[in-house]
User: What shape does this take?
Amino acid sequence: MEKDQHIGVWVTKDGYIRHELLPNGRYVEARGNKKNAFTGFYNISGKHIEYLDDSGFVANGDFEGDVFYHAGMVLYKESA
Assistant: This one.
């Protein structure tokens, strides 16, 4: 799967967590009403994503088709 296929918004089933993967290698995570709960950089290699948050912490996740597994969460690609 190409990196471009992962760009966009990924959201938990309840809509509370939203990860927007931007084409410039940055991300924005929204939580509830807080639109910029976390921001930083990401890098995708194959099905794996590594995050480096602007505050310094790191995280990772994996894509399996149309499902994104990250830090115990399951997110789904939001359709346009």
Notes: The mean pLDDT is 93. The CA atoms of residues 23 and 66 lie 18 Å apart. DSSP finds no helices and eight strands in the chain.
